[in-house]
């Protein structure tokens, strides 16, 4: 989730059912290396990062020079659940 209060205001948010600010723990910034193919994709491109989840390339940050991907869905970790005895 992108949290940049200087660039966006709550009134400009496309989400009409949200109220207030997102939880601070919902923002996770990860720095990673991706395949060159992903860096070349345009804004809105969707992909799966292995064992992590599904992401899309942020259209609002497309002109920063670095690809920014936002997580859409987190994958379940069934193996960890089985290891924990659940």
Would you write up a description of this structure?
12% of the residues lie in helices and 17% in strands. The chain has a three-stranded antiparallel β-sheet, with no helix packed on it. The protein is globular, with a radius of gyration of 15 Å. It contains two helices and three strands; from the N terminus they run αβββα. The chain has a domain at 36-86: Ribosomal Protein L25, Chain P. It has 86 residues and is α+β, with helices and mostly antiparallel strands. The longest helix is centred in the last third of the chain and has 6 residues, at 78-83.
Task: Detail the topology: elements first, then pairings.
Blueprint: H1 36-39, E1 46-49, E2 53-57, E3 69-74, H2 78-83
Antiparallel strand pairs: 1-2, 2-3
Task: Describe the structure using short key phrases.
17% strand, alpha+beta, 12% helix, 86 residues, Ribosomal Protein L25, Chain P, three-stranded antiparallel β-sheet
């Amino acid at each position: 989730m992108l949290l940049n209060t200087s660039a966006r205001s709550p009134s400009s948010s496309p989400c009409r059912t949200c109220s207030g600010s997102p939880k601070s723990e919902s923002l996770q910034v990860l720095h990673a290396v991706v395949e060159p193919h992903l860096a070349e994709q345009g804004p809105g491109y969707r992909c799966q990062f292995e064992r992590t989840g599904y992401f899309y390339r942020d259209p609002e940050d497309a002109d920063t020079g670095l690809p920014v991907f936002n997580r859409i869905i987190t994958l379940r970790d069934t193996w960890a659940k089985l290891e924990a005895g659940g």
